[in-house]
Amino acid sequence: MKKFVYYLLGLLLAILLAAYLLDYTFTAFYTNSKPRNKIALAYTGTAQEYDVIFLGSSRANNHFVPQLFIDRGLTAYNFGMSGSRLEESALLLQLLLAKGAKIKSLIVEVDLNINSNGYSEGTRANFYPYLNQSDLISSYYKNIADFDKLYYLPFYRYLKYDAKIGMRELFFTVAKRPSKNLQHYGFYPLKNTGKDMKYDLSKHYPKKNRAYETIKKICSENHIRLIAVTTPMCENVKNIAYFEEVVQLYPEVHNFEDVVTDEDCFSSCGHMNEKGAKVFTQFLLDKFFK
Amino acid sequence: MFFNSLSFAIFLPIVFFLYWFVFNSSKKAQNTLLIIASYYFYSCWDWRFLFLLVFSTGLDYFTALKIENSRSKAERKTWFWISVGVNLGFLGVFKYYDFFAVSFSKLIEGFGMQANPFLLNLVLPVGISFYTFHGLSYIIDIYKERIRAERNFIDYALFVSYFPLLVAGPIERATHLLPQVKVKRSFDYQQAKEGIHQILWGLVKKIVIADSCAQYANAVFDNYESMNSLSLVLGAVYFAFQIYGDFSGYSDIALGTSKLFGINLLKNFDYPYFSRDIAEFWRRWHISLSSWFRDYLYIPLGGSQGGTWMKIRNTFIIFLVSGFWHGANWTFLAWGFLNALYFLPLLLSNKNRTHTGNIEGVSFIQGMKLIPQIGLTFALTCLAWIFFRARTITDAFGYIKRMFSNWQFKPQYFNIERYNFELVLMLVLFVGFEWFNRYKIEPISGKYSYPKICLAIIVLLLFGVYSEYKSFIYFQF
């Protein structure tokens, strides 16, 4: 039995050693390789000066076209992330500033994402490779349920979020496979035109959002011009009054829900296609950056 | 509590420690601990069904004694049928009642009549098909006077409820397991080490092979109408490896866990995808169930004795019942039916026992001859798996029809953001690894076991699927 106990201890040691080595290797590759997502870009990239950046969910990622700003001689980047919530946007903004980025204006999409104070598990995962290296990230997430496991257990974060930061993603990172996330200055154009589009907002209620408050505070402290906007949806929306409720809750938000209405400008009810995105971005450009 | 869960990783060492260090004074103490652990393990699924398990155990224990002590044949028969009736009654109510009620109402509606069937909508108690078959084999063996009834309730209860086999087998026989639980077990280092190796290999099969394949197979089967022929073929292959990795992985963990307690369970899989014909496949796949049906259904029905029609009838009965055992759905019946069709030509031409035993060291020419045999058997198996996996019979036929009519073989990008061919290399490596270890229970033991353990750990960490937790498929049966 004694021999078997030693055998088990050896096995346990082998598991811990393998986990530690893999954790070290993964983190090293994610930190030192060419970035494949916007969080990696913010963390590993060099400090940049931006005239304007964009933040928000897919409704920012698919709706703001930095190229139109660049054509006017402004530096711009779309840091909107599909599936993300404002919680991740707030951290991304802090990460950019901590890395020395200079930002003059921030356009943030504030609409469906203030329906709750939620977070995106998938987007969060992209911060975790840097959890042990960045005090900013670790302190931001120190109160989440499994922080101790993510922080102290070697390789746990890469196991738990294998679909996002596991072996497959590492392989693409090492192989320097280009990511669509970072093309077109972060803008992801949708190509198709939707049919029979509709959306139900009857169960959506805008609520005070902690992450948005954080973004406002950061902008104020760093003298960043904050432009909060709602972005267009298709016409067949149940409870379109939701957008007015957003403005009632946060009067500084510009309600641009109805700026684009043509059906052929939408890929789905909640997302404009490239044509709609260009129309909308041009509108923003003309309104705020004359 | 799943075998691949954190709670089991805590539960198992605790029971192991108590078993060998605290309750190791006698067989009675060891068995009592295992019974408590097994009932706790089962109650973690749903404590309410523990009563059903205890009742079923008590019933079989009691009726077995009654059968053995009966003074007349009629009394013997009565007790036997009471046990069989109640056991199958539970199975029927929980597993099959709603299926029959719905099927009957559809039949009535087919004749233009209105039917509103009364449905029970019961949750299926986990492992009921397995422990019912344990009990049935025991009762039949007593009735046929093959074994003596067990007097010690604890020993009998452990035979039925032993936690490594409780929820998904292997379906044990009293002749194999009871003699082991009737003696005090002493610790055997070699056996325990092999147990660990088997658990490790089972985890690789489940977490790396089965769960990876599941992502791709689900993407194909759930959207088969938009898939091309290549994706549909690969989808069936992925599901074949998913179910193999899942169930044989589970069985390996069960067998390995049991070895830690000094008890050997029946082998359930023997590299089935290296079978040279369907008859051999069924001697290598879910062996404990196949042999159960052979011994308690096929042979009593006359087996392969008698005339041609008798052989055909018995073959269809055994495969249809086997299909139906898996679940109350026409898809499982079709799967059983198709396998009967595959098997029948071999039986009728007396070639069903052509390939027995392992494929020994083969020359290049012999190997070339084997490839089409193994390939054809695997292809037929995959075709049958489509029925097993599809939600409905209509979906299964739709899937097959599209597979043979689309004729597009381009790489396709799935909604899970992966290409259809991405897993092929992993499966080729897995098949190669199994091929070179096909004489062994698991590939880790033997020469170079330490490097192989390290490799298994690294493969588990690197290629395992942890973000999408998947239960074992056979737990639903």
Which features characterize this protein?
heterodimer; A: 290 residues; alpha/beta; Rossmann fold; five-stranded parallel beta sheet; two-stranded parallel ribbon; 14 helices; elongated; B: 477 residues; mainly alpha; 2 domains; globular
Which radius of gyration of chain A do the C-alpha atoms yield?
21 Å
Largest sheet of chain B: none
Give the CA-based shape of chain A.
Answer: elongated
How would you describe the oligomerization state of the chains in this entry? heterodimer
Mean pLDDT of chain A: 93
- Biggest interface pair, counts: A-B, 20 and 18 residues
**Principal-axis shape of chain B:** globular
CATH topology call of chain A: Rossmann fold
Distance between the termini of chain B: 16 Å
What's the SSE pattern of chain A?
HHEHHEHEHHHHHHEHEEHEEEH
Q: Quote the beta fraction of chain A.
A: 5-15%
Count the DSSP helices of chain B: 18
State the helix count of chain A.
14
Helix-and-strand structural type of chain B: mainly alpha
Strand content of chain B: under 5%
Class by alpha and beta content of chain A? alpha/beta
Rounded mean pLDDT of chain B is: 91
Helix content estimate of chain B: 55-70%
In short:
Chain A is built from 14 helices and 9 strands. Chain A is α/β, with parallel strands linked by helices and 290 residues long.
Secondary structure topology:
The complex is a heterodimer of chains A (290) and B (477).
Chain A: H1 2-32, H2 38-44, E1 49-55, H3 58-61, H4 66-71, E2 76-78, H5 86-98, E3 102-109, H6 121-125, H7 135-140, H8 147-152, H9 156-160, H10 162-165, H11 167-174, E4 199-200, H12 210-221, E5 225-230, E6 237-238, H13 242-249, E7 254-255, E8 266-268, E9 271-272, H14 274-288
Parallel strand pairs in A: 1-2, 1-3, 3-5, 4-6, 5-7
Antiparallel strand pairs in A: 8-9
Helix pairs in contact in A: 5-12
Chain B: H1 6-22, H2 27-46, H3 48-69, H4 73-110, H5 128-143, H6 153-161, H7 163-166, H8 174-181, H9 189-221, H10 229-260, H11 278-284, H12 287-298, H13 308-326, H14 330-348, H15 364-389, H16 393-403, H17 424-436, H18 449-463
Helix pairs in contact in B: 1-2, 2-6, 3-4, 3-5, 3-6, 4-5, 6-8, 9-10, 9-18, 10-15, 10-16, 12-13, 13-14, 14-15, 15-16
